[in-house]
Amino acid sequence: MRMQGAVSVPADVAIAPGAPGDQPTWVNAAKTGAGSSYEAYVDGRYQDGGPTGVVSRVWFSIADGVLTETMYGLIHEAQIKQLRFAVATESGLAVEGPDTTDRTEYLHTDAQGRPLSPAYRVTTTDRNGRFEIEKHVFTDPDRQALMMRVTVRALSSDVTPWLLLEPHVANTGVGDRGEARPEALHAFEGDTHLLLRPGAPFETASVGFVGASDPLADLADGDLDIAYRSTGDEGGNIMLAGGLPTIRAGESLTRDFVIGFGETREGAEGAADGALATGYETVLANFNGEGAAVGWEDYIASLDQLPRLAEQSTDGGRLAYSSALMLKVQEDRTYAGALIASLSNPWGDTVDATNPSTGYKAVWPRDFYQVAMAMLALGDTETPLAAFRYLPQVQVRAETPGNTGATGWFLQKTWVDGTIEWVAVQLDQTAMPIMLGWRLWKDGVVSDAEMARMYRDMIKPAADFLVDGGTLGILWNDRTVTPPWTQQERWEEQEGYSPSTTAAVVAGLVTAAEIARASGDTASADRYLATADDYASKIESRMFTTNGSLGDGEYFVRITRNEDPNDRAPIGEANAQQGLPEDQIVDGGFLELVRYGVRRADAPSILATLPEYDDQTREDRLRVRYDLNGFPAFRRYGNDGYGENVETGGSYGVGGMTPGQRGRVWPFFTGERGHYELARALQGGSASPGELARIRDTYVAGMESFANGGLLLPEQVWDGVGNRTRFNYDPGQGTNSATPLAWTHAEYIKLLRSLADRQVWDRYAPVAERYGR
Predict the structure, then answer these.
(1) Does pTM top 0.90 for this prediction?
(2) CA dihedral defined by 44, 46, 47, 50, rounded to 10 degrees?
């Protein structure tokens, strides 16, 4: 290994061999950072020429201290798998991630340390103390470009850093072609291009096929022996590299890098060069919204409820501010109001990237509702309004491509442009758009005239489906749905009668009735209320067992496939878990009955179920509650298999679906329970200061304890079940499922708003007045 003052000169070869390279995967989904530029609406849409100028359509994520999935175009269109550094030292090669520890911080905060923009300082430190790398990461709000300032510090020995760029252009890791020059690294597929421009030319550069001619394998001895200039005419899974000068011990090197994106090489190059010419300080200031520039500071300042919500926190408001940023970051910038579930691909480092994948970068109307309501809670009225106006794009109509069946219901999962992905009927996802619309209308965000139009075009078809159901006819789905029986409940795995689904359906019909009456359709209003009354009156008879095998035998089951919750009939197998008798499976779905106002917090059926939900003496397979680090936490339901494998430590689904898979604790259930406890405390009309403090110190603080170092909240955290050495997680630490999960951030924000208002944010007054007396 040579450690002279510059990178050694490698042999120069025109074309890299070994196409197409190894089978590609995505990357770690446990993000510690996620960001994009703030873009202002123009007449409720995203278009160039508004207060924020050109609309930037670039998103990035950070995991393990490195830049990971980076999107350009639509929010799910990943172009980069990861960008990291390999560092040659006198005692061997070290690679960021496996050979470093990392810390993620925000670059721009207020005096209380609360983040004001999703610009990050990411620091990786060599486990052997030889070097440290500090990266500042953000996007150019005026171009299709990402900027990164990198400082490498040689701590105890001379080091030679190499930048390693792994593109996954056009949302796959196959078919990419590339070329490497000291002046730029270029990758492309079809009409999508990216170009990385260094602030000063690399010492040398190379491109190769992963597993065959990639630069990282060549660097194993600390030197690049062969510099391949191009992948030629063949595409595949590629890696590009650029060498930096050797840094002497005790010294440092700072260098800027910009990645531009475009439909042509020239377009990507122009974006990169424009950002580099504008300069780090100006681009960052514009991103932040400092001075005359309109940026993230302006968005945060527009959230008039955020300061009072932050007062309800126990961390000084840091997570509240980061949650506000995350909710807005995870919106598409072509389709205004298209709110996705997470800027990640769950268990991505083991997910095949041969074919395009959205992962969680897609629209589920249920997650969508949670986010829109949270943004409204923050004081943002523009985004929820755009979201409401977006919803018709994902509602099934006669003209929906391929549809020959019932209409009015909302698609299970779609791309942000409305492209159909999954097509099961989940009745809560048809009710929630109605509930959102009612809330926006009552808050004066949607006018009477617009609501009358939306009633005719969207809400009435949805409400009619909640009453009548129908026979489906889209892709594989030809089932008949008869509400409140749902083809899938909120976990997308089981059919039948579900407390959480029924809660939403009843709330949806009651709110639809108010809208119908205001729109002059009294006959439909009466029909919706009569149906809601029928569904509400049968909740216990359909879903509350009186001879269950748990506890005293009286509690809500998670779901039942028929109208008899006492027959102990099995529910379906899911995630390789045996379909157990319905009475053995409990979950927190019954709490949604209280949240929406369908049942009082002190209803006998609710109080009877709490002990079974809270039982921590039950065997792990069926146990739901796990107190972690002193805070209550809950799994989705007993026997959940949506998680890592307890037996092997492997990611979900790796090696096939096996019984060893285990779904872990989901932090937003801590917030759901906090909402229930607030409803219970308010049952008499007001809550005492002591009760409010207990809820804050238990449930708000509990959710805050699950945030990672970048103040992002995960889908799942490790519950301590299984051999820790296989997972290397601490109890309460986010797993590789999906982070940031928008629903988790939304639940946290809504809990803060509920405490600030002394009223449950998602409570629907006409529902509570009708059923909660």
Answers:
(1) yes
(2) 70
Share of the chain above pLDDT 90, in %: 96
| Whether 352 contacts 24, CB under 8 Å | yes
637-640, long-range: CB within 8 Å, 24+ apart, which pairs? Answer: 637/491, 637/558, 637/585, 637/586, 637/587, 638/558, 638/584, 638/585, 638/586, 638/587, 639/577, 639/578, 639/580, 639/584, 639/585, 640/575, 640/577
Q: Cβ distance 670 to 631 under 8 Å?
A: yes
Euclidean distance between CA atoms 176 and 237, whole angstroms: 6
428: CB partners within 8 A, 6+ apart: 366, 486, 489, 490, 500, 501, 504, 505
**Residue 374's Cα: distance from chain center in Å?**
14
Q: What is the pLDDT of residues 341-386, one digit of tens each?
A: 999 999 999 999 999 999 999 999 999 999 999 999 999 999 999 9
The pair of structure tokens assigned to 155 is 């701590």
pLDDT digits (tens, 9 = 90+) for 153-200: 999 999 999 999 999 999 999 999 999 999 999 999 999 999 999 999
C-alpha–C-alpha distance, residues 465 and 486, integer Å = 11
Token couple for 606: 């609710």
Counting other chains too, the contacts that 249-255 makes at CB distance below 8 Å and 24 or more residues apart are 249/154, 249/155, 249/156, 249/157, 249/158, 250/154, 250/155, 251/153, 251/154, 252/151, 252/152, 252/153, 252/154, 253/151, 253/152, 253/161, 254/149, 254/150, 254/151, 255/149, 255/150, 255/198, 255/199, 255/200
Q: Give pLDDT tens digits for 83-130.
A: 999 999 999 999 999 999 999 999 999 999 999 999 999 999 999 999
716 close to 665: Cβ distance less than 8 angstroms = yes
b or e along 508-542 (b: 16 or more beta carbons within 10 Å of the residue's beta carbon)?
bbbbbbbbbbebebeebbebbbebbeebbeebbeb
**Is the bond preceding 20 in cis, omega lying within 30 degrees of 0?**
yes
Q: How far apart are CA 563 and CA 578, in angstroms?
A: 22
Residue 710 carries which side chain, given as an amino acid letter? G
Cα separations in angstroms, 443 against 380, 511, 553: 12, 14, 43
pLDDT in tens, 543-601: 999 999 999 999 999 999 999 999 999 999 999 999 999 999 999 999 999 999 999 99
